[in-house]
Amino acid sequence: MATYPHGLRCRLVRSPEATPSGRHVLGRVAFLGHHSAPAVRAGASEIGIHLVGAEVERVTEVWETDSPVVSGMYQDLAYAHDGEYLFCAGQVPEGGSYREPVRNAYRAAFDLIGKLDYPHVMRIWHFIGDINRANADGMEIYRDFCLGRAEAVDHHLGRAGDMPAATGIGALGGGISWYLLASRSGRVRNLENPLQVPAPSYPHLYGPRPPKFARATSFSPPGIDGAGDLFVAGTASILGHETVHAGDIAKQCDVTLGNMAMVMSRENLLAHGIDDGRTLKDLRFVKVYVRRAEDLPVVRAACAAAFSDTAEIVYFTVDICRSDLLVEIEGIAPYPRS
Question: Which residues form the Chorismatase FkbO/Hyg5-like N-terminal domain (predicted)?
Fold first, then answer.
């Protein structure tokens, strides 16, 4: 269980019969053997994402708050907010091309964020079916997705628009499922990794428009000028802009964890004007995505050595955004409390 400013909490539920926490629910993300459309149920936003096979235990990521929640639907988006935090989920149906529907979905989300006045987007997750396959026009689906996203960001934020930490990972079903967290107040600072080229600056060999995301995002609650919650984006075995150690899962794990450690380090946070520093042991909620099921023992061993015994870690066997990447890891390090 991880706690965030103003009582926001992420809870991992491994059983549908789990005892309710007694708090207000903003959003539920169910990792299932099938997709389910965004909806409002029991006053909360909810989405089901096809990320596990029939033999794998289902888990649900639950975002909770201390404050009463208002929920609703807006242009096929399911949302809930409590006056300080907004959770929003959407889904793009399977199709031959994703550029236009992704652009439209992002525009709807930007419109909703503006209408409800939650201007600080802290974190975005995307789950993309057939992520490495070609679309109807021969473009890789991930690149097709990145093109639509970039055009929506251009429209609302300008070509140099700053985007937060994000994950873009494969899913076992078609279409694209996604969700985000935003805040009404506080301060968002997006972070880069000195070992990596910023994703928006990738060369054209990775597609007509590069991915739009930061390597991590620090969110400081109102009244806190320095350290905040640290959201580490989906991270992989990339140095500069190139994949390293193709085919070697152990070495890819080492580089991935090294990249995460660098972006969280005091050296890097100070370079971004934040008087703070974290280590991998500070991560409390970690998702690990592994391309090949046979690599899971190696990845589990690396994660057990790197992360705290108190971290909640979940593993999924899905494709990664580049066909030569074997593992991707993300995590959240909550604001330190006495």
Answer: 61-182
